[in-house]
User: Fold these one by one.
Assistant:
Number 1:
Amino acid sequence: MTEKVSARSYWIGYQTILIKEVTRIIRIWAQTLLPPVITMSLYFVIFGAIIGRRVGEMGGMPYMDFIVPGLIMLTVITNSYGNITSSFFGAKFGKHVEELLVSPLPPWIILAGYVSGAVFRAVLVGILVWLVAGAFSGFHMHNLFVTGSILLMTSIVFALGGFINAIYAQKFDDISIIPTFVLQPMTYLGGVFFSVSLLPGIAQQIALINPIVYMVNAFRYGLLGVTDVPLWVAYAMIIGFGVVLFWICMRLLTKGVGLRT
Amino acid sequence: MNALEVCQLRKTYGNGVEALKGIDLNVVEGDFFALLGPNGAGKSTLIGIVSSLVNATAGETRVFGISVQKDRSRAMAEIGLVPQEINFNQFEKPFDIVVNQGGYYGVPRRVAKERAERYLTQLALWDKAFGPSRQLSGGMKRRLMIARAMVHEPRLLILDEPTAGVDIEIRRSMWRFIRQINEAGTTVILTTHYLEEAESLCRNIAIIDHGDIVENTTVKALLGKLDVETFVLDLREPVERPPQVDGMDIVLRDPTTLEASIPKSRSLNRLFKALELEGMEVKSMRNKVNRLEELFVRLVHADGPAPTAAQAAAGAGAA
């Protein structure tokens, strides 16, 4: 009897998907790494340096400093989600996802490989944007563990969300609808440019339904030490979303929804 | 041991189409097995279920005794699949495509690179290994998919019309390669619309039609069932009417061409005696169609009038 399937063979399979993803991200760096850095630099110049001077302080600190964590989160979320949707849907559209589907790799390894690729891009872009931000407002790091863990967990959550989008997508339009009409508004309204505490009563309550508020605030705590929400609530929300999305991804992959007939 | 066992396999698609109606099929280890059938017969559905791309509605498939439905990962490790449609990333290099596929099967990168070089060389693709795969010709793309399917050295190689649209020279070189793979011990299952391919390569054969296996035997036994053969005779001089021979159906296709359908029980000598009596000199003689093709047409059109050989060949075209 063959011993072709083992923990080692799965590890090699996982590495192969990850290497393939990383190679793709690096090879097309002008599409994957450069645009977010340029976009965020413009945000820093316009909202931070030009408009920010007139705004004054937000949350007890210069406006420029205040928006940096939110803009990094915005980049991380869009890149994590966008990487996995374009890569996995591209594989599905070009039918080369079948290379994985006929292989012995179990669904969780395929998911782990693609999610790791998305996390790689999100974290790399996040670090690049942080470096650019440092040129405008200086480098801040209040709590490295909180910063790192929130960065990692947020990119995992949105990679899982993007994976579900890619599974259901039938055409390329389907992978741009959620980022444009759901993610972007949620991120902009999620406390990137303002403190939720500035909102009047009911609006504040509504804003707190938005999970991105918790991610942005927890990340802001990691970099600057200020937050509008309790840290444990943020962690609980991110872990909760992660578990639910992982469960949905696994269920879809196991049943072969959108992949096997 | 059986390389493949298919037990009461059923597939009904969401739109109600019953692609497989509870079929049973065994392929023994080391066999070179042909799976034939006209368009929509269920061949690709069967291959899809064996390779886990299609979920079965009922029944079971086992690869070397391992259930595809219950132990998918271990079963898939034994299979190499060459699909009908091109399904690799055309923005990647052939070498990377083969090496990455090895990785998905747990082949260490160093070993996968060695094998990629070996198989791409054997399939005459090594000089294209590091160029863009989208620039390969149709035949090269098909050979690349064979190299990709072989990188983890499967015990069962499934080829779904691997030579479709490939010119005869490349087709024959592919046959040689697949034959070598089979001789080295790999079980091969082949679907093809070149019936000549099945006749010359395969030992056993199954014909599938409307989701049922209508024949499953050796190629030799199947050909033995052919009781009438049709010959085309080119005459040296034009004639006005065909000779009459008892028990033979002889028609004049044009003034210098006769077509004679002769039961195996009748001697060809009787035909030649009649021709000689009529003063007709035969310049050359050949089989009208491929023998297997004749049987194929008969088996899949048992309930209706048999089409012409040309229609049959076209009908057997795509799975």
Number 2:
Amino acid sequence: MSQTIAHSGAEAHAETVHHHELSFFHKYIWSEDHKTIAIQYLFASFFFLIIGGLLAMGVRYQLAFSGAPIPLIGTLLPKWLVTDAGAIQPQGYNGLVTMHATVMVFLVMMPLLVGVFGNFLIPLKIGAPDMAFPFFNALSFWLFLVSGIILLSSYFAPTGFPAAGWTAYAPLSANGAYNGSQAGQSLWCIGLFLNGLASIAGAVNYITTVINMRAPGMKMFRLPLPVWAIFITSILLLLAVPVLSAAAAMLFCDLNFGTSFFEASHYGQPLLWQHLFWFFGHPEVYILVLPAMGLVSEMLAVFSRKPIFGYKAMVYAMVAIGFLGFIVWGHHMFVSGMNLMLSSTFSLSTMVIAVPSAIKTFNWLGTVWGGSIRFTTPMCFALAFVSMFVIGGLSGIYMASTPVDLFIHHTYFIVAHFHYVIFGGSLFGVFGAIYFWFPKMFGHMMNEFWGKVHFVLSFMFFNLTFFPMHNLGLNGMPRRIADPGLYDFLKSQQPLQIFVSLSAFGLGLSTLIFFVNFFYSMFKGPKAPRNPWNSTTLEWTLPSPPGHGNFPVTPTVYNGPYEYSVPGMDQDFLPQNQPAPKTARLAVH
Amino acid sequence: MSFWRSSFARCGLIVAVLLAGLGTCWADPRTSNLWWLPENATEGGVYIDQLIYFILFLTGAVFVLTQAVYIFFIIKYRAKKGVRATYSHGNNRLEIIWTAIPTAIFIGLWGYSNHLWWDVLHSTPPANALQVGVAAYQFGFSFQYPGADGKLGKADANFVSNDNMFGNDPDDPDAKDNFTSSTLEIPVNRAVHIRLDSKDVIHAFYVPQFRVYQDILPGRIIDWVWFTPTKIGKFQLACSQLCGSGHYNMKADIQVVSEADFEKWYQEKAKAVQPQPGAKLSSITETKDQ
């Protein structure tokens, strides 16, 4: 790969830009620089990723070796979690399941996608010096961190983790007498409330920044797809998260102040919780996947050396997903006891929302078609994202069909489905994106060989862990059952359960390779050039890492984001801030 | 990019696909039945299974086709010296085609699903359907049968309490001769119409072999679930909605028996139970021997 770097007049001075020195506190702790905040989010999410992963290991251990004491650490764990012998108790298992999902959704995937890449990429990609509201941005991170600490602190409560599932269905979640973890559930409400505030602050910032702070020439249809994706995601966050925050506040009052929003015994409505939760929860699913779609689109274009196939179709598809995402929440509730006619209508909207996802998939295929593909680590993850997302998307069609949902609702089929979307999809996208933007974040390259090893192992173990779950679910394995061995119709599944668990342990271990590579490369990796991937977007015109304030001179944008392999040019990419040479034959589209 | 790198990546993909297949083979299909759906034991389940196989065929075909094209592209268009990528921003005609076709398929699939949902699974139960009340509580199920009159009588969620698990209307004489059981005994080939209520939190009525799932809500009586068992045998009812510390073991036995056996069982139970103002928790413990 050639290291040709395009310099425009302004960029040549980039390294010499001088900003007044910030104190340690303002540089690393209360930093208002979007790049530092992104890195703060990154490290915090890594910490939570490890916690969430360990919780998952606990879940898999219990399902495979129910009743066996946990080796080494079993007896050290608190009594709400394990028996005296050190084996996981059923209520402790409920807590593990609840917190694994809560941590992974709210403290890992949302901050990784929106907190890290939203923060890092938006200003750099649109040619802005920082976010519109830097103070808000820093506040958002610290609120997020506090929310995470509050959520996890229930580990130290005598009754332990909240144990009503991450969906916290009332009235189980609304009454300590029912759920047996009053303290944990209350902390869960407070944690999610603060987490929601952090998301709202972030969303307002991203939306304002994208609308108001684009460099001259950066029309909306010249925005790189990650920016579009995070922009649409932010709108979803702004409209969906307040509903969850409000619901969490109501639940907290039910738990602690004797109100009865959701308690049926006092004329509250249990289904109200589900409507509020899923009104947030379904847009949330798209919040968790849209940014990854954007990141992956960019990596596919860069490493295929091709313009993205159907740029506008991609944008319109994301807008459609964003809009339709608000009218499909009822498909989580086909069998909840709500009016059967609602199931019919939500089934229709759910079928329709599959269309934009199909459009995106076909356009990714079109992007790879005719390319000149470079199999770097980020590209491997991006390519895998598409395949895994296709599996996760297709398995969603089963649930969208109401009669089939009657059979597989709340089984391991759905567990397989959403892990294919959120892990095989979003987290693979994030892994790819970390390998891709690491040079820009830290000024060093990550190790390619170990990156590939990480990719191959996690791809294998991911599929070995989650694909058999489809079979478990179709065979009748319900979610959230601590000991499937107690059910006659599940006994024959035990060998497969053990297999899945062993694969999950392998998946957990393979992630360690990533962490070692990451932290080693941060200090010892080869120095990164400005534009190691020969990419077109604005962040690659800056030094790695870019200085405080980003662009010494506001760049002017002349081209769309993905002008690769333009005929009539020697180099195979045309940076956005570089006017096309006369010989270039740019397509009008 | 070097050939080694691209072949490295492809090898990884191939190994992964093989291993994923191996994982699914892990459990012996003959004993575990993990390859196919569990045996179906109701009339409605037949339609659901047909639909599942149809969707499996459809999504399977789409999956194989897209992945084959994708992998073909990935291999064919790997970077080669001196070959530049095709410069293309897309094709509007293709966009229209691959928007229109999925839309038509999905709407068609919805049409058929919706037909099953209304006309088969949630149609009006036959007049001779056996009425059974199902009460769920932390952590168990109880079942209520109509007495000699064949009627469960009126019920209302507001009447549900420790003493009246099924929410029977105390003023309705039809409910006076109802009796309870700790197992669900049902005759084969006769429709069973269940009426669900919960005393405390949300539970679920889930029997994989019946292809039936329904959440049981506190504060609301759900009376639209009915099914016709087609196989004699023992099944298990599992609570499939997380309901607290005892959720992992909340289940009940279901016995599907011949019409004659059911009649015998029913007559014995109906005779033994005196008319009472609604089922009590104590009467459940009395019938535990079942």
